[in-house]
Design brief:
The chain is α+β, with helices and mostly antiparallel strands and 316 residues long. It folds into three domains: 87 residues, 3-Layer(aba) Sandwich (Rossmann fold); 144 residues, D-amino Acid Aminotransferase, Chain A, domain 1 (2-Layer Sandwich), CATH 3.30.470; 61 residues, Dna Ligase, domain 1 (2-Layer Sandwich). 34% of the residues lie in helices and 21% in strands. It is built from eleven helices and 13 strands. The strands form three sheets. Strands 8, 9, 10, 11, 12 and 13 form a six-stranded antiparallel β-sheet that branches. A four-stranded antiparallel β-sheet has the order 4-7-5-6. A hairpin with a 6-residue loop joins strand 8 and strand 9. Helix 1 packs across helix 11. It is globular, with a radius of gyration of 19 Å. Pfam families: Dala_Dala_lig_C, Dala_Dala_lig_N. Keywords: ATP-binding, Cell shape, Cell wall biogenesis/degradation, Cytoplasm, Ligase, Magnesium, Manganese, Metal-binding, Nucleotide-binding, Peptidoglycan synthesis. Pathway: Cell wall biogenesis; peptidoglycan biosynthesis.
C-alpha cells in the first residue's frame, strides 16, 4: 500500500488508564514514524476527545497505541466496531481475554500452553495454603493491569496480605502466580497480511538489574540489557516461537502482539501473558525483534497499520 491509500489515520494514545504515560510515549513515536512515511497521521487522545470525532473528522483507520484498560481490553475496540472504523491489533474478544490474566491462563491450560501455577486471591485467603500451592517466592499482581503495575514479588508468607492490598488498589481481581526462575524472553507476533499467516519474530532475551524487570527498568533506565538474537539454543527458540503463535491464535488475537515467556535452566518454559497493544517506545521489544529481521521502526508501524480491520472482516 502507498501512504496515500491509508487516507486519514488517527493514532490513539494516552487514554485514561494507569499506563497513560507510556502510551503517550508509544503514540508519539508511532505518529512520527507514520508521518515520516508520509501517512496522513494525527494524534488522538480519547481521554480528551470523543471517539465519535473519528467519524465526524473523516478518519479512515486507527492505529491503537493505547495501553491498559480502555485501550487494550476490548472496550475501545467495541466502540470502533460500532463506528465502523478499522483499527490495528486484536478485536474485541481477543483483546478482552488477553487483558484478563486469569482467563488467559484458563484458555492456555485448556489448549496445552504451559503457564505458571496460580491461585486467585481475596482478602480472606488462607495465605499459608497459597504458599503451600505455589511455593516461595511468588508473584502477586492485578488481573487487568500491565507494565508490572501493582505487582509484588513475595518472599515471605507474612508479606502476602500487603501484596494483595497493593494489587487490589488497581483491580477487584488479584492473582498469585508461581515464580519462575530463569531467563526472561519475549516473542513478538506479526501477521503478514490478509492472505498470509501469523509469524513469531526472533526472541528477545531480557536481563534486568537484579532480575527486576519492573516499571522503571522497562521504560526509564538504560541498565536493562536486551539480546536479539537471544542466545538460547536454536531448537528451543524455534519451539517457543511456534508455541507463541499458537498461544496468540487460541486467544483469538490478530494483527500483532507480544507473548512474555520464562525459560527455566532445564529447558522447559512457561508463558506468562499476552500483550495485544505492546509498547512502541525506545525501550520496547517488538521494534527490537523487528529490527533483527531487517524491518525498521517506521516500516514496522506501516506494516501494523496495513493490517487495520474490523471483527466483521471489513478492511480499510
Amino acid at each position: 500500500m502507498s501512504a496515500r491509500d491509508f487516507g486519514k489515520v488517527a493514532v490513539l494514545m494516552g487514554g485514561p488508564s494507569a499506563e497513560r504515560e507510556i502510551s503517550l510515549i508509544s503514540g508519539k513515536a508511532v505518529l512520527g514514524a507514520l508521518q515520516e512515511k508520509r501517512v496522513d497521521a494525527h494524534a488522538f487522545d480519547p481521554a480528551e476527545r470523543e471517539l465519535f470525532d473519528l467519524k465526524r473528522e473523516g478518519f479512515k483507520s486507527v492505529f491503537i497505541a493505547l495501553h491498559g484498560r480502555f485501550g487494550e481490553d476490548g472496550t475501545v475496540q467495541g466502540a470502533l466496531e460500532t463506528l465502523r472504523v478499522p483499527y490495528t491489533g486484536s478485536g474485541v474478544m481477543g483483546s478482552a481475554i488477553s487483558m484478563d490474566k486469569w482467563r488467559t491462563k484458563l484458555v492456555w491450560l485448556a489448549a496445552g500452553i504451559p503457564t505458571p501455577k496460580f491461585v486467585m486471591l481475596k482478602a480472606s485467603s488462607d495465605w499459608d495454603r497459597v504458599v503451600a500451592v505455589l511455593g516461595l517466592p511468588l508473584i502477586v499482581k492485578p488481573v487487568h493491569e500491565g507494565s508490572t503495575i501493582g505487582l509484588t514479588k513475595v518472599s515471605r508468607a507474612a508479606d502476602l496480605p500487603a501484596a494483595y492490598q497493593l494489587a487490589a488498589k488497581y483491580d477487584a481481581l488479584v492473582i498469585a502466580e508461581e515464580f519462575i526462575a530463569g531467563q526472561e524472553l519475549t516473542a513478538a507476533i506479526l501477521h503478514d497480511g490478509p492472505t498470509a499467516t501469523d509469524r513469531a519474530l526472533p526472541l528477545v532475551r531480557i536481563e534486568a538489574p537484579q532480575g527486576n524487570y519492573d516499571y522503571q527498568n522497562k521504560y526509564f533506565t538504560d541498565d536493562t540489557r536486551y539480546y536479539c538474537p537471544s542466545g538460547i539454543r536454536a531448537e528451543v527458540e524455534d519451539e517457543i516461537r511456534e508455541v507463541a503463535v499458537r498461544s496468540f491464535r487460541v486467544l483469538g488475537c490478530r494483527g500483532w502482539g507480544r507473548a512474555d515467556v520464562m525459560l527455566r535452566p532445564d529447558g522447559t518454559y512457561s508463558f506468562l501473558e499476552m500483550n495485544t497493544s505492546p509498547g512502541m517506545t525506545g525501550h520496547s521489544l517488538v521494534p527490537m525483534a523487528a529490527k533483527a529481521t531487517g524491518l525498521s521502526y517506521a516500516d514496522l508501524c506501516v506494516e501494523i497499520l496495513a493490517g487495520a480491520s474490523l471483527d466483521s472482516g471489513a478492511r480499510q
